[in-house]
Design a protein that fits this description.
Alpha-Beta Plaits; 26% strand; 92 residues; single chain; alpha+beta; 2 helices
Length: 92
């Protein structure tokens, strides 16, 4: 079990890339995964090489499961996930 108190503000930063990805034309494997994350609360920032969001540590398992479930259900061939503590210099 992930303990939220172990992280600053109980928040982790998640970056994810879902492939295949065509810049400017994300398919349903990307859009549905992002929609599933946002339905759980985190706002997703879509970038040129992947997407990211800040997630309450205790919600991380649900968010990771939603990404995998929706991405692969809609045709993803590869999902990369990277979780880290947020950089306090860049947090607002």
């Amino acid at each position: 079990m992930i303990r939220a108190s172990a992280y600053p503000d109980g928040v982790l930063h998640l970056e994810f890339t879902i492939e295949p990805f065509v810049e400017g034309r994300p398919g349903p494997h990307v859009t549905q995964a992002i929609a599933a994350v946002e339905a759980l609360g985190p706002a997703v920032e879509i970038g040129p090489f992947g997407s990211g969001c800040d997630v309450a540590a205790d919600r991380l398992p649900d968010v990771l499961a939603a990404i995998g479930r929706e991405a692969f259900a809609h045709g993803a061939t590869h999902v990369s996930l990277h979780v880290s503590t947020p950089d306090p210099e860049t947090r607002s």
